[in-house]
Amino acid sequence: MRIDGLDVADPSATQTAFDFGGLATGGLSRVEVLRGSQSALYGSEAVAGVIDIRSFRPTDPGVSGAASIETGSNSTWSGNLSSGLLTDRAELAFTVTRTITDGISSAASGTERDSFASTFATLYGAFDLTETLRLGASALSSDTVLDFDSFGAAGPEDSFETTRGNLRGGRVFAEFTTGAVEHTLSLSRTTIERRTPVQKPSDIGYYEGRQTGISYLGGADLSGQIRLAFGAERTKEELVAGAGQPGSNESDALFGELRYAVTPELDLSLALRHDDPSDFDGRTTGRLAAAWRITDATILRGAAGTGFRLPSIYERFGGYASEDLQPETSRSYELGVERLFGEEGSLQLTLFDSTIADRIGFDANETSCGSGFGCYAQVDGDTRSRGVELSGRVAVAEGWALFGNYTYTDAKTTDQGVETRSVRVPRHDLVLGLDARLTARLTGTLTVQHVADVMDTVVTYGAPDEPLDDYTLANAALSYAVSDSADAYLRIENLFDEDYQTVRGYGQPGRSVFAGLRARF
What we know:
By secondary structure, the protein is mainly β. 2% of the residues lie in helices and 64% in strands. The protein has helices at 39-42, 313-317, and strands spanning 2-3, 6-7, 28-35, 49-55, 62-72, 76-86, 90-101, 116-128, 133-148, 151-152, 155-156, 161-178, 181-197, 204-221, 226-241, 247-263, 266-277, 283-295, 298-309, 328-341, 345-357, 360-363, 375-378, 382-397, 400-415, 418-421, 428-437, 442-452, 455-456, 466-467, 471-483, 486-493, 512-520. The two termini are 30 Å apart.
């Protein structure tokens, strides 16, 4: 997970991952999702994919920006302000978002509300010192306060607990050109702190993780058909404080990517990367991709890649750690076809298949760490996720369009012929929607989502997994153009007040209504 070039995964978490709960969607200009093994480009943590986010950037010369304010159910308030300056030589942008809500009880059986508050801010600047040298920096800050309910003997229950999180990150970079080669040097650092009162305010659980990285990226056009990118990086993840003992993961890497336009209709790309972790053997990963434009309206795409994931610092040094853990490895394949119909119509079909070997999981029967409650261990057998995704959009009338997406996923672990379903992975996920221009100023959107056949763990210790109830959600939104640069909107989530769970024992909001204003300047 990257925001403005910063790796924001939390090294102090059980697995090195990003907590999306504190991320505000206001002030984001681009979200890119790369599916499948991406370790050849992004390293260890990209075993199953990468999410890359860019904050607000000005697109027009001079000063520009956007602002919004929203209120709604459960005493929810949120606001966003983004602004920037763009000149011939300089670019400056900042965004700040604040969200507060009384929330609902996170325990499905609970009655007390679990509130949430978040402040998220980014700052970006770059300046062309000369025609061939550009200097820049970015920074981000996130502060969250979240009430939560712990897991008791009968499952999640009201427990009146609070956790506070702080994320601070910064990156400086220099972009310069020598001859035909473009270079980027960057230095980045993030610090994440989490404080969790367990029983009373004086009983504090404190976690702190840090990431530091230095990287070089080069690129050159070898011809009109061939583009070469290459680079090197050094990263260090640290568990400064938390359960267990402090520890770190360090790694050096070399990587390269070759893009070749074989013909105007056929593009190929090949990426290779070698990582040399300080405490494990070196790993080489790769990715091969192709895109073939069969006609102007039909594109065939395919990709195959390998990846790996180092054991997280918590898995190695935490209270349930194992010294015998080795990296996970993965391989993934993807084949898709896209068909365009006129200016608005499209249909995409994608087949995907990903397998993880030596997956690291929590084994309640493992005793090597001496916790008495289980330990981290390599999962026997292969964990495989395969399926098909179908999405499309079609115009049905002037200003009216239908869209939809269906994903079938078969995710399971196979060990000596015995198959076990992966938990919390829907086998069927269907979304259907309608976009409509009702008048010259009024637009609307209606979506319906149906999720079916999901397995999850149960409260009873060591008992087999059981299915969650299927559910169907409907959401509706209206937007009215007050002027050329301002809109008022109304949004209703869970329109029919569906009672559902995505994790056993934890509740989800019922019908929720929100109204807001947004403007551009």
